[in-house]
């Protein structure tokens, strides 16, 4: 689609900030007005639209895509998104450790334990670790406590948190981003630890590298979105 506007700008109405293209507000795919409650977030979305060239490239507007999801999907199915996101606490990537080789075991402990320790202290929970892929049951109190934390997110933050959780396979890592405990590169390194170890042993596949790079950019966008949405 060709660019059909000269400039994107922010228009404030009460506590809401809409992004307008010339005089027309942006509409979501479900034809709802794109409005947010954070001027910082509105500014980031506005900048995405102003950075477009003669042809619109939605892939280059990840923050807009998350806002669309928050307005169209989360508002319509908030409880479902909460359950979907919170469910990762019961099978969090960081709880499933390798039994061997020793080098991988050590790397997981070194990189993942600090995140587990942070989550346990921050939320007052206990995360049970296990070896291998056989499911381990987490304490109900821990699951309920983390679910309440997810439920406490506004729709905008919840949409980005859901995205970050899916990208990393870890609600602990996604919450570390949401709360400013870690940045996107550190979290992505933790999420990709096993894959990186395999690449060192057997070499890296070009397509897998491209996919990983794309997912990191999506994670970075979700991080910036969450932090701006809370401002």
Terminal-residue CA separation: 33 Å
Give the C-alpha Rg.
19 Å
Q: Beta fraction of the residues? A: 5-15%
Total domains, how many?
2
**What level of helicity do the residues show?**
55-70%
| SS content category | alpha+beta
Count the helices. How many? 10
Shape: globular
* CATH topology call of the largest domain: ATP12-like fold
Label the CATH architecture of the largest domain: Orthogonal Bundle
Q: How many DSSP E strands?
A: 6
Oligomer: single chain
List the uncertain runs.
none
The top level CATH class name of the largest domain = Mainly Alpha
CATH superfamily of the largest domain: ATP12 ATPase
Mean pLDDT: 96
What this model shows, in words?
Strands 1, 2, 3 and 4 form a four-stranded antiparallel β-sheet that branches. The protein has helices at 39-50, 62-74, 78-86, 102-123, 140-151, 155-168, 171-178, 184-191, 193-202, 206-230, and strands at residues 8-13, 16-21, 24-25, 35-36, 96-97, 130-131. By secondary structure, it is α+β, with helices and mostly antiparallel strands. A hairpin with a 2-residue loop joins strand 2 (16-21) and strand 3. The model has no long low-confidence stretch (mean pLDDT 96).
């Amino acid at each position: 689609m060709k660019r059909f506007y000269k400039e994107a700008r922010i228009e404030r109405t009460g506590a809401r900030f809409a992004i307008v293209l010339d005089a027309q507000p942006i509409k979501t795919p479900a034809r709802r007005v794109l409005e947010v409650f954070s001027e910082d977030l509105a500014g980031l979305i506005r900048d995405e639209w102003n950075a477009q060239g003669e042809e619109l490239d939605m892939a280059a507007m990840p923050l807009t895509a998350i806002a669309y999801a928050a307005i169209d999907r989360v508002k319509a199915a908030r409880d479902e998104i909460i359950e979907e996101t919170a469910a990762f606490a019961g099978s969090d990537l960081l709880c499933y450790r390798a039994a061997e080789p020793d080098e991988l075991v050590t790397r997981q402990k070194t990189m993942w334990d600090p995140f587990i320790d942070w989550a346990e202290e921050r939320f007052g929970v206990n995360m049970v670790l296990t070896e291998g892929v056989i499911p381990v049951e987490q304490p109900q109190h821990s699951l309920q406590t983390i679910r309440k934390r997810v439920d406490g997110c506004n729709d905008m933050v919840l949409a980005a948190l859901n995205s970050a959780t899916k990208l990393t396979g870890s609600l602990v890592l996604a919450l570390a981003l949401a709360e400013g405990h870690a940045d996107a590169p550190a979290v992505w390194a933790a999420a990709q630890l096993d894959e990186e170890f395999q690449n060192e042993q057997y070499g890296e596949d070009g397509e897998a590298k491209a996919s990983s790079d794309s997912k990191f950019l999506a994670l970075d966008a979700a991080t910036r979105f969450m932090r701006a949405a809370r401002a």
